[in-house]
Each structure stands twice: as structure tokens, then as C-alpha cells.
Write a structure and sequence with these properties.
Largest sheet: 9 strands, mixed
Number of helices: 11
Helix content: 25-40%
Shape: globular
Number of domains: 2
CATH topology of the largest domain: Spore Coat Polysaccharide Biosynthesis Protein SpsA, Chain A
Radius of gyration: 19 Å
Length: about 280
């Protein structure tokens, strides 16, 4: 039985996929399996996959989104630990070794993540202050936006038994939703080493093609408020963030002439004030 299962979901990333796979296979830590889930690619990504026959586990499925692809990988996996790598990102060769070392030194840990290098349009850029990383009980830090890059995470597979799999009804912000569910229950530890490279700026990135990401964060916040897992302080923090995001989204609706949708959004937080 392997110790770590690495899951790469991919969709029409032929130009990036080979490098992503190689960055996993070249890890200094070797006790892992690599699962690639092709979520219905039409760009002949399978030609890249053939180069790694016998070295990876491969599954093709009809296009159902990133959450479905990650969940399919989780269901196929056998490792005690799970790591994800988006197919346009890269790992440092010591990424798995550093995280396994952290788990061995801190056996109570359920999940950890690492620092990262950002590349946008082929140029290295510095993350903004709002993307600052934190360690420990970071639920309140996870509320404004997704500060945890999924390609940097390693987590015990038992977490999924408790918090559930990725929400396949969320086309984006599914990672934001997952980190809220986890950070509400457990500390999330940060390794201050740049062990992944995030490559962004592609014209077909979901975050660029889908407008108003806050509407999906609103859904995630409603879910966590209804989950019954939040203590009073966490509940207040989540409700405050929900109010803020609803105001922002409603303002956009009013600007576009969608008055009914804007008024509906403004009213959402009222449903949750009665709980606490």
C-alpha cells in the first residue's frame, strides 16, 4: 500500500500536462501513486498520457468538472495521504518529502499546505497582501477568499470521511468550500517553503470565464452556516463575511439592472441571524 496518492485532474491542458506529471514523477520522495483523471479532454491529451504508460493510473471520464475529477481520483486512491496537483501547476522536487516530514514530526496534523511561486503570462509576480498565508486555526482567514492553493495541500484521507468530498454542484470555488469545511474543524498548518509553482493567466481558466465568483462563495458560506459545525465565534465571522459578499454581489446586480436578483441577495443573511 502506498503512503501518498497524488491526483491530477485535467481538462484540455495538453500543453501543460507533461510537465505537471514529470514534476510528480521526479519527486525525491518515492512512496506514492499518481492518478490522472482526464475530465473529457478534446485536445488529444491522451497522447501525453501514453508517454507515461505503466507509471501512472489513468482514467477518462465525460466532462463533469474539476470537483468530479478530483472525487474520482479520491475514490481510486489507496494512500494514507492525498495530494492534488492542478495540471497547469508544478511541484518542486522536494514537495512530498517536506510534507511527509512535517506529518511525521507533527502526528496530530490532519492537513498542511506550502508556500508558492506565482507565474502569470509567463512572468513571475508577487502575491498581493490579501493572499498572505496563515497557520493553525485559520477559519477566519479562509473566509474572504481562497488562500490555500489546492496544488500545495497534503491531507489525511480520513478527512474526507468526516467533511465529505468536493461539491460537484460548484463549478468554481469548490476548493474554498472544502477549506471552510476543514478549517472549521481542524487547524491547517503552513510550511513556509515555496514548493509549488502556480501558472495562471490562461484565457480558458474557469476563474476568468465565470463571472462573479462571489455568488459561489455565498453558496459555500450558506452551507457552512447550516452545517451545525460552527461555534459561536466562527458563526459570527461567517455571517459577517456572508453579509459583505451579498452586499458586493447585490451592488453588481443593481449596476447591471438586475434589481430583483440584487434584492434577493441582500436578503440572504437575514435567514441566518436567527441561529445565533
Amino acid at each position: 500500500m502506498v503512503e501518498v496518492s497524488v491526483i491530477i485532474p485535467t481538462y484540455n491542458r495538453k500543453g501543460f500536462l507533461r510537465e505537471a506529471i514529470c514534476s510528480v514523477l521526479n519527486q525525491t520522495y518515492k512512496d506514492f501513486e499518481l492518478i490522472v483523471i482526464d475530465d473529457g479532454s478534446t485536445d488529444k491529451s491522451d497522447e501525453v498520457i501514453k508517454e507515461f504508460e505503466g507509471k501512472i493510473i489513468y482514467k477518462y471520464q465525460e466532462n463533469r468538472g474539476a470537483s468530479s475529477a478530483r472525487n474520482a481520483g479520491i475514490k481510486l486512491s489507496k494512500g494514507e495521504y492525498i495530494s492534488f496537483l492542478d495540471s497547469d501547476d508544478l511541484w518542486d522536487k522536494d514537495k512530498l518529502m517536506e510534507q511527509i516530514k512535517f506529518f511525521s514530526e507533527h502526528p496530530e496534523t490532519k492537513i498542511c499546505y506550502t508556500d508558492e511561486i506565482w507565474i502569470r503570462h509567463g512572468v513571475r509576480v508577487n502575491p498581493m497582501k490579501k493572499h498572505q498565508k496563515y497557520s493553525g486555526w485559520i477559519f477566519d482567514k479562509c473566509l474572504p477568499l481562497c488562500i490555500i492553493s489546492i496544488s500545495s495541500v497534503m491531507m489525511k484521507r480520513e478527512l474526507f470521511d468526516e467533511v465529505g468530498l468536493f461539491d460537484e454542484d460548484l463549478p468554481v470555488c469548490e476548493d474554498y468550500d472544502m477549506w471552510l469545511r476543514i478549517s472549521a474543524r481542524y487547524p491547517v498548518y503552513f510550511i513556509e517553503k515555496k514548493l509549488i509553482t502556480k501558472r495562471g493567466g490562461h484565457s480558458d481558466q474557469l476563474s476568468r470565464r465565470i463571472t462573479s465568483l462571489d455568488r459561489f462563495r455565498i453558496r459555500a458560506l450558506e452551507k457552512i452556516l447550516l452545517s451545525g459545525t460552527l461555534g459561536e465565534e466562527m458563526y459570527r465571522d461567517a455571517l459577517k463575511e456572508l453579509e459583505q459578499k451579498c452586499k458586493i454581489y447585490a451592488k453588481g446586480c443593481f449596476k447591471r439592472g438586475k434589481v430583483e436578483e440584487g434584492n434577493l441577495c441582500i436578503s440572504i443573511p437575514e435567514k441566518y441571524k436567527k441561529y445565533k
